[in-house]
Please model this.
Amino acid sequence: MLRLDRIHPLVSGNKWFKLKYNLEAAAGKPVVTFGGAWSNHILATAAACKMEGIPCTGIIRGERPAVLSHTLQQAAALGMELVFVSREAYRHKDASAFPDACVIPEGGHNAAGARGCSEILSLADTKGFTHIICAVGTGTTLAGLINATDGENNARRPGLPAAEIDPPAQKIIGISVLKGAYSLEEDTAQLLTQPGRPEIFHDFHEGGYGKISDELIACMNDFYRQTGIPTDRVYTGKMVLAVNKLLERSYFPPGSRLLLVHSGGLQGNDSLPPGVLCF
Ligand SMILES: *Cc1c(COP(=O)(O)O)cnc(C)c1O
Model:
């Protein structure tokens, strides 16, 4: 498992990579971005902007609740201005309404986000793995991973002795955490630097985005007991559950070496009642 969750407690996991080039492009301009009440992206943006000294605004889906979610409380404490808009207005959000700001799309889904994510695998020696697996929300991370392993990385370079030829193409697999989000293939493909069709599984969402099942919770607890690695309820827990089920189905050929990308998001577990998770 590639532990992006350990990079930073709040700018956790893949969000760090998605923000890197987006904040560079902001060049000091105030940042505006979008998300829901439990959005890891909102919190990561708030934390990263605080570190960089960039003012930021989060446009939050839905009316302001009487009590802010844990995520939004933390984002506000980090200095993010929170603007609540109705679900209807949120659906029609439009970057051109903020001409003087650097607008980062919801979830950091853009080319700059994918470019940052293409650096994830350089954190460790990841060449020997046959399959790289990540959770998918917008597909930005998946696109970055595919871009990093496509092309030159896996091309047989002419003239090299056989022993030095790069390992066979690594298979990058995405696990959708959303129910029936069949546009994700296209959303991901839009960010690929070479034409291709990403491989995304759609049957491990456990009821939909943010939904949990007893099986998911049991899987997260078992995984923690076996490995000491905490996963999050929205993304990485579902990825581990999916990998367990794919193993049961003998999806991976014998001899496969799997690399699971821990994309962070552990703060989302704060929304569970105490005692549900054993970590
Ligand atoms: C946002 C998030 C994802 C989804 O990443 P995308 O690039 O939007 O697909 C996965 N894991 C965690 C922990 C996240 O916070």
